[in-house]
Design goal:
The structure is a single chain. By secondary structure, this protein is mostly beta strands. The chain is built from 1 helix and 10 strands, in the order E-H-E-E-E-E-E-E-E-E-E. The strands form 2 sheets. The chain has an 8-stranded mixed β-sheet with strand order 3-2-7-8-1-10-5-4. Strands 6-9 form a two-stranded antiparallel ribbon. Strand 7 (91-99) and strand 8 (107-119) form a beta hairpin. The longest helix is centred in the first third of the chain and has 13 residues, at 11-23.
Length: 137
């Protein structure tokens, strides 16, 4: 899963940004964010099927200071992220999400994995630093 994964904003995050910037509605940023794995598209509305069971847990991810070029701002994952070793088959992983909690919580961003992979028992996934990209324009 070495290719870049471009991530789009969820409806939750779009609403929070617009309300905070334009309506003065307070928003408290999460202190940590986590990668979630999906077997179907989470969509902007957070409707996808997240992996469950078999040792699955979300993993914390950190991002770089944003950089700007023309009208675009961009942030990239700043360190390798390792998902737990599967203790049973997880299925074909096709999407990821960035969420604001270790369990439950809100979807912030989501994107398709460029090279989907079936995770079997004893497999694990690593997302290399710099490969998760959030663009804002």
């Amino acid at each position: 899963m070495a290719d870049e994964i471009l991530l789009s904003k969820s409806n939750y995050w779009k609403r929070a940004c617009l309300n905070a910037a334009l309506r003065g509605v307070p928003f408290t940023a999460p202190s940590k964010v986590y990668i979630a794995l999906y077997t179907s598209n989470p969509t902007d509305a957070d409707t996808g099927q997240e992996v469950t069971g078999g040792g699955y847990a979300r993993s914390e991810v950190s991002f770089s200071e944003p950089t700007f070029a023309d009208r675009w701002g961009s942030a990239r994952s700043s360190a390798d992220v390792y998902m737990p070793i599967a203790t049973k088959d997880w299925g074909l992983i096709t999407y990821i999400g960035i969420r604001d909690a270790m369990t439950g919580g809100n979807l912030l961003y989501h994107g398709a994995i460029t090279k989907p992979r079936t995770i079997l028992e004893d497999d694990h996934i690593r997302f290399a630093a710099g490969k998760l990209v959030i663009d804002e324009g």
